[in-house]
Prior knowledge:
- The chain has 338 residues and is mainly α.
- It contains 14 helices and 7 strands.
- The strands form 3 sheets. Strands 5-6-7 form a 3-stranded antiparallel beta sheet, with no helix packed on it. A two-stranded antiparallel sheet has the order 1-4. A two-stranded antiparallel ribbon has the order 2-3.
- β5 (298-301) and β6 (307-310) form a beta hairpin.
- α4 runs antiparallel to α6 and α6 (106-127) packs antiparallel against α8 (146-154).
- The protein is globular, with a radius of gyration of 25 Å.
- 23% of the residues are buried.
Amino acid sequence: MASNEMEKAKTLLTLALFRPDPTPCLPKEVETIAALLQTATNKCSPANVQNCKKWVLANLVPSERRVEPFCNYLVALANSFRAEDASRSKGGSRPATAQEARVPSAARRRLHILYILSDIVYHVKYRLQPPEHGQKSFINKLESTLPLLVKSASSFVRRPKQIGKIRGLISLWAERGHFSNAFLDTLRKAVDEGVTKGATGEPDTTAQDSASAANTGSKPVPFNMPKRHGDLSTAWYDLPPGNWLRWIDGTYPLDPQKITPIEFKPGPAREELVDAVTKVLADVKRIFAKESQPEDQQVDISEMGERLERGNNGEIMGGDTYYGWSRQFCRKIKDKEQ
């Protein structure tokens, strides 16, 4: 579960960094911050914390859309620490390697994440020049995730010193005016909830809490059409590929002036489009699901490498074609040609 959460959070952070907001980052930047955070959480030295802060100031603070994916990545990272501890404890008689022996506990590493964020918040609030640049956006986005990180760092049994350090950190934030009094009360409540959860032996639900915080309700979100596909401020070569397709005919080169965001009529999507999107999402869920196929379907591979889904009588129920087209779409094109 933790690894899946990490992969998802890392993918969303990667997509956010690739967007021109204000300028796209290089692909290596995701691996860079992952390595910097691993180093700083293992050894929370001033130099390691400074390296993380420099990366955040350069790549996150100037952007309004990258802070939230980064915070969600921190939650996934914190949640993965306990899974690593559990994995090492199940190692049996295998002696720990020298590297594993130097890795702190999950509790300590979660505390280190709070230290890293504390240093970043201080710099953003008091040393950033000009002072208003990126300040409000970063602090506001951080407030949606920080209680989860505080709660997770407090949810360990027999850790009075750690709880004292977390409470002391919140007191320091209060003295420096990092956050409002109402939000500081929320953080203190998060500490109490974490202590209670650790004392009662409740399972670690940091990932579920993060998902719940991201959702606005339990009802399914309706499929609504956006006003346009793409951003008007985005250069033509960074627009989604769908904006290119209508101008590709194989005869003339693309005209950059024609490649603009596709305009839609806002409102509920058509039923056919909703069905198509639902099927795609179901296919994605099936691809990444660990469960086996339904009993009434058998997956087969044809001579051309096509994935076929057959029923109990051997008839083809569905599957993927060699070229990635659905069978229904192939039949539709074939009928049109006839």
